[in-house]
Structures are given as C-alpha cells and as structure tokens.
Design a protein that fits this description.
Blueprint (H helix, E strand, L loop, with lengths): L5 E5 L2 H8 L4 H12 L3 E5 L3 H9 L3 E5 L8 E6 L5 E5 L8 H4 L9 H16 L11 E5 L15 H11 L4 E6 L7 H13 L3 E5 L3 H6 L2 E4 L3 H6 L6 E3 L10 E2 H4 L1 H7 L7 H11 L2 E2 L5 H11 L5
Parallel strand pairs: 1-2, 1-3, 3-4, 6-7, 6-9, 7-8, 9-10, 10-11
Antiparallel strand pairs: 4-5, 5-12
Helix pairs in contact: 2-13, 5-12
Amino acid sequence: MSARDTVTFYLPSQMRKQAERGNHNFIKKVSEVLIGAGLTVAFDDDNDLARLRAMTRPGRGIYLMDPPVNTRGLTFRKTYIYPFWHIEKEAERWDWPVAQDAFDSRAVDTRKAANFYRFWRSRLFDDAPQFARADGFVYVPLQGQLLRQRSFQTCSPIDMVRTVLDHDVHRQVVVTLHPSETYTAEERSALEALMAEDDRLMVKEGGTPRFLRNCDYIVTQNSAVGFEGYFFGKPLILFAKSDFHHIALNVAKLGEATAFSKVRHHVPDYAAYLYWFLQVRSINAGRPEAKKRITTVLRNHGWPV
C-alpha cells in the first residue's frame, strides 16, 4: 500500500487514544468508510510538530477543528451537540457551505421537524424547555478576548455588552464568563467598570440552564449558547459571523438599532431550523445511514471513497 493511500487523523492525545482503540463513534465510522475504499488509516498528535510532519507526508489528513496544512486535508468538528458532525475544507464555521446557504422553513417536513425538536429538547435539557419563560433579562454569554475586536466580529465583546445596555434600557443584563477561558485583570476591570456605570449589569462565573430557560433573549458574538437557546425558543442577536446565523438577528446585516428593535417580536421556526441544520445539513453519527452520509460528504470533497 502506497503512503499516498494513507489517511492520518491529527488528534489531541486523549481523543487519539480513544480513536486508536476504536472507541470514538464518529472517527470509527469515518475510518470504516476509508478502509472500505482501500485506504489505510493512521493517527498522530495535533501539535506543531505533527503539523510539520503532515506537510511532508504524501497522504491525506483529517484534522480536529484545525485548518488542514494543505489541499489534501479536511477538518472535522462537532456540530455543537453529539452525535452531529461536519467534515469540511475550512476550519472556520462561518465559511462552511451551510453558513452560505439560505434556509427556507417551507422546504422542511413539518412533522419530522416537530418530532426531531421534541426529542432533542428532552434529550439535551430534560423538561426545562417546557417551562421556558421571559423573566425580564437579557442573557449575554461571553467567550474570550473581551477587549479585542477580531476579524469576524463587529466589535469587541466588551463593546457588545455596552451596546446591549445602551439599546435595551429596561431589562437586566446577565453576562456569563466562559469556564474554559482565562480572563485578564484588565478584562475583569473593564466589566467591573461597566457594572459601576449601570447597576442592571450582573456578571456570573459560568452559565446555567436557568439563564437559557428564563431569559427574554440572548446576545452573543457566536457562542454555542446562542445555538442552544434555539431549543428554548429564545430569540438571538449575533455580533459576529456564525454558521447558525440564519434565524438570528445579525448586527452586521441589520445594524444594532434594528436588531434590538426587532428582537421582542422575533419568532422564527426553531423546530424547522434545527432539523434542517442538524439532521439535514450535518452528519448524524447515531443514525444507521451515517456511513453512507460520510461517504457522500467525502466524495463531494473529491476523496476516492
């Protein structure tokens, strides 16, 4: 077997061990498709040295969330919840085909969407979505780099919080810090200064399902929490590029004033959208047809399977 026929997965240490034992469901299914097509599967780390090795290898590579080192590679990523995945050429979600495509709720089977929505709301959040209500506050889940405006953002996260306070002058604003992020003293001081300016602002260390269940709406750059809010029927305002923007109010397109003026009456078809985004446009690794779907996706990327 030629080295050109080898496909290497580049994975963090724990996932690599899991995959090598055949205990990662999605990677196992992708591997079975590749092996069934006559290719060889190998595993490596996902550090800088491994990426250097990838550049010299003649075969193909599959990278977890990272951009491929060359045109012979693809990236894969969980589509926010298990067992849904994407295999794409680009690492940035907002460049994926699903982000560029238009969503039309009229093209979605209403019965299938309703069943899907009901099942996954219960699976992910038990009965919490059934008791969703609006308690008069805005939920703002933060990510990282609060003082910096990155290329995919319309403003820095701290300016986003300030904008929420400026445009919604009546509601309390609950900001949560991401548990996996490390915030600098300067970032925390900026939040404290905003709290001193407006006593409606509250900052919490990490979010809870209670905020999703009880908020009036969600504002975020492109946090997965905004996507989770769809399961609670919560309107969403986005301040950054995202793959799940279709039914959100996008500040980059609408402007701040229009987005906030529309949010109170914004009621998209959450069931149809989640069915389209997850079941139709992603790979559901828990379904019997998962390997067939993986094969189709790889072929569409020009891979010989």
